[in-house]
Write a structure and sequence with these properties.
heterodimer; A: 262 residues; Rossmann fold; six-stranded mixed sheet; four-stranded antiparallel sheet; 10 helices; B: 286 residues; mainly alpha; 72% helix; membrane (chain B)
């Protein structure tokens, strides 16, 4: 079992009067057999979701508390924790295949070998024939899938997703949700994801952590199972139509807006 | 595997819709473009006509203003027989060699300096004031000093041009580096890139469009420094040719030289824009 753990982490940005996040603890586990947690952070603007993700990524140093992978403190970014951003952050001077192969190129993997691996990953995200495409020839959803494949090429233990579907239109987003679930099952990673989408959180997560601002803290944690039902073969529409889904959505919405002045 | 289940359309496919007019597409404002070009063409023709008229009516002495026909005739003669011991091609190649040697020197120094300014605070502190000091000085002002230091040989001429090119190259590189998207750098780091790999694989390619713009500006600056660079102890070069002709009051060669310099500058600009399109096809499409 591998764990990405934030232990009472606080984030305080230079020049800000108040901390952005105060004493938040999280744990994302990944069993050696492959199945990992899918932890989703939700909450209103300013609750520190992205700050926490950046601490896990090693891009932001916590002002207090400790971020660790298997007990080893996180001192910077690393390919065991690959990040996918809202704006794909792909490299337009490379083809889709070369983007996916980027992490392998950094490691000095020979060109033919990394091209083969990149094509496998592109097939996994259902872009098998787009390897030679330039980034600007791809739609937003396709780009985001290239971004996911690129992150998976680093063979991370954990995927950190910062609103990866935030810039997509509603229909594409819905399709990408199932893509994410497929990847999560296939790639054997633990996932930490930030989102604004309540339904998205319910569909994807094994655990939802609700944060509230002022400074960012955890107000509730839900264990959910809708993603597992999809993995077991139930169609996503049927899951979303389930009254239990509607009830969970209402409960989660209440938790997010709890304590906010009406 | 099925792609059709995920059949999103590519956002913008190059060449799509070209030469194919859809009923709801709005007519392009073509007339404005054509008329601007037309006005430019008319302007040039009118100037040429006025020049021809002034020359043929002897309104101005040919010593001051030779006729277009005389300039053209001189072009043919100098191209074939040469002027001051070299043909027009030899003069042109001598000048082009100096400008390109200077360009390479400016790239070798300017790009690393621009990187240093863009990446590190110390780099910026060291190089920014130096560049700001160099940038506004006209080449004729530092030419004497360079001759005192480095003599009257070829290196001095190349150096004068290179100095004029350095600031545009370095400052454009720095601007490109500062414009690199934070997320791209972070994404690369989280994929395991070291600092050196981030510079090599993310920052440099990201800054490339800006660097190429800098080269274009630098070529313009260098080309316009040419005459100053060839002021002392040159035996070939377009600038040298013009100055020699001026000393003998061979005005038609002077005018011809000016036109050749202008045409070559225009051609260089055109070539480097082509190069930009090939090297950085993503510029402006992100």
């Amino acid at each position: 079992m591998t764990h990405l753990t934030l232990d009472k982490v606080s984030v305080h940005y230079d020049g800000q009067p108040a901390p952005a996040v105060e004493r938040v603890s999280l744990d994302i586990g990944k069993s050696d057999s492959g199945r990992g947690d899918f932890v989703v952070l939700v909450g209103r603007s300013g609750c520190g979701k992205t700050s926490l993700l950046n601490v896990a990524a090693g891009l932001v140093e916590p002002a207090g508390g400790l971020a660790t992978v298997d007990g080893r403190p996180i001192t910077g970014p690393g390919s065991d924790r690959a990040v996918v951003f809202q704006n794909d952050a792909l490299f337009p001077w490379l083809t889709a295949r070369e983007n996916v192969a980027f992490a392998l190129r950094l490691r000095g993997v020979p060109a033919d070998k990394r091209a083969r691996r990149a094509d496998e990953l592109l097939s996994l995200v259902k872009l098998g024939d787009a390897g030679d495409k330039r980034i600007w020839e791809l739609s937003g959803g396709m780009r985001q899938r290239v971004g996911l494949a690129r992150a998976l090429a680093a063979e991370p233990e954990f995927l950190l997703l910062d609103e990866p579907l935030g810039a997509l239109d509603a229909l594409t987003r819905e399709r990408m949700q199932t893509t994410l679930l497929d990847l999560w099952a296939a790639a054997q990673v633990g996932v930490l994801m930030v989102t604004h989408g309540i339904e998205e959180a319910l569909v994807l997560a094994t655990r939802i952590v609700v944060l509230a601002p002022g400074p960012g803290h955890v107000v509730r944690t839900f264990e959910t199972h809708f993603g597992r039902r999809y993995a077991a073969g139930e169609p996503i529409r049927a899951i979303k139509a389930d009254p239990a889904f509607a009830a969970a959505r209402a409960e989660l919405t209440d938790a997010i807006f709890e304590g906010e002045a009406a | 595997m099925s792609v059709s289940a995920y059949s999103e359309r590519p956002a913008a496919k190059a060449g799509e819709n070209n030469g194919f007019s859809v009923p709801w597409s709005r007519p392009r404002p073509k007339r404005a473009v054509v008329s601007a070009r037309l006005v430019s063409a008319i302007t040039i023709l009118v100037l040429l006509a006025a020049w021809t008229a002034a020359a043929s009516l002897q309104l101005v002495s040919p010593v001051f203003l030779p006729s277009p026909a005389a300039v053209w005739a001189k072009f043919v003669v100098v191209a074939r027989d040469g002027f001051v011991d070299a043909t027009l091609l030899q003069h042109t190649l001598a000048s082009l060699w100096r400008v390109f040697a200077a360009l390479i020197a400016a790239i070798l120094v300017g790009v690393p300096v621009g990187l240093a300014i863009g990446i590190s605070r110390i780099g910026r502190g060291v190089f920014d004031p130096l560049l700001e000091f160099l940038r506004p000085i006209p080449p004729l002002a530092y030419l004497p000093l360079i001759i005192i230091w480095f003599g009257i040989g070829e290196p001095s001429k190349i150096l004068v041009i290179a100095i004029a090119m350095l600031a545009p190259v370095a400052l454009s590189t720095a601007a490109g580096v500062r414009g690199v998207s934070r997320e791209r750098v972070d994404a690369a780091r989280s994929l395991g890139a070291t600092r050196a790999q981030v510079i090599r694989h993310v920052i440099l390619p990201s800054a490339l469009p800006s660097i190429l713009t800098g080269l274009r500006i630098a070529l313009g600056a260098g080309w316009s420094t040419l005459v100053a660079a060839e002021l002392v102890a040159a035996t070939r070069g377009l600038g040298f040719m013009i100055q020699s002709a001026a000393q003998f009051l061979v005005t038609d060669v002077v005018v011809m030289g000016i036109l050749v310099i202008a045409i070559i500058a225009f051609a260089l600009e055109f070539v480097i824009r082509r190069v930009e399109r090939v090297l950085v096809p993503w510029a402006g499409r992100e």
